[in-house]
Amino acid sequence: MSLTIGIIGLPQSGKTTLFRALTRLDDTRGGSGGGNRPHQAHVTVPDTRLDRLSAIFHPKKTTPTSVDFLDAAATLADVEEKGALGKRVLGTFRSVDTLLEVVRCFPHPYLGEAHPMDDLENLELELLISDLTVIQNTLERNRKMAPDARAWFESLASVLEEGARPDASLLDGPPDSALPFVQSMALLVAKPGIVCANVPDIMLCCY
Ligand SMILES: Nc1nc2c(ncn2[C@@H]2O[C@H](COP(=O)(O)OP(=O)(O)OP(=O)(O)O)[C@@H](O)[C@H]2O)c(=O)[nH]1
Ligand SMILES: [Mg+2]
Fold first, then answer.
1. What CATH number is attached to the domain comprising 117?
2. Is 86's C-beta closer than 6 angstroms to any atom of ligand 1?
3. Whose Cα sits closest to atom 14 in ligand 1?
4. What are the pLDDT digits (tens) for 54-109?
5. Per DSSP, what are the bridge partners of residue 98?
6. Per the structure, how many domains does the chain have?
7. d(CA 161, CA 132)
8. What's the half-sphere exposure (Cβ side, CA atoms, 13 Å) at 111?
9. In this structure, which residue's CA is closest to atom 2 in ligand 1?
């Protein structure tokens, strides 16, 4: 089993530091993880139970679970053009299974005091706006979309317009005619998320 986790967060929140800690990779010098080349790492998950089973049954092949981590930050141009995260960066994260949202909880030398709740709100808002744009473009481009699919996307868009995350019952219930669009959109709000409060002792909470 393999999982792809995208590390996302406002600039200087500690994404690359966390990426290095999780992957033990140290080839991230001189880069923020942003720009043209995101940091990527494939990590196998150590599991002593698998080693033991493999030693007992001697299978031809033993494949441990793996996790792919992706760390991409906004470029300066993206930041100026399209909010802190940038269109291109959010596009990159559409391919991941899970978002790991890093929130700065430490005082920064030039950004100053931490405002984690405001930062998390801004980060969430950028995800919502990005999805809203994708939905609106899709509705615009597919004028002959089935009425039930259109109605479902419109109700999703109206929740996002209010700056809220849609609840699970709405996300889980697209009509069949909407499914091909849902798959190609890879909505960010539909992905499971983990919020990482970046304090000296890392705290994680999942939703
Ligand atoms: N004091 C303190 N500093 C931290 C912590 N985590 C990261 N930093 C520092 O904060 C700065 C930014 O860290 P990065 O990991 O590069 O942050 P980033 O989110 O990848 O930054 P961008 O890619 O530029 O958006 C660096 O100087 C880190 O050393 C922390 O938990 N405590
Ligand atoms: Mg970085």
1. 1.10.150.300
2. no
3. 14
4. 999 999 999 999 999 999 765 555 555 656 566 667 778 888 999 999 999 999 88
5. 5
6. 1
7. 7
8. 14
9. 106
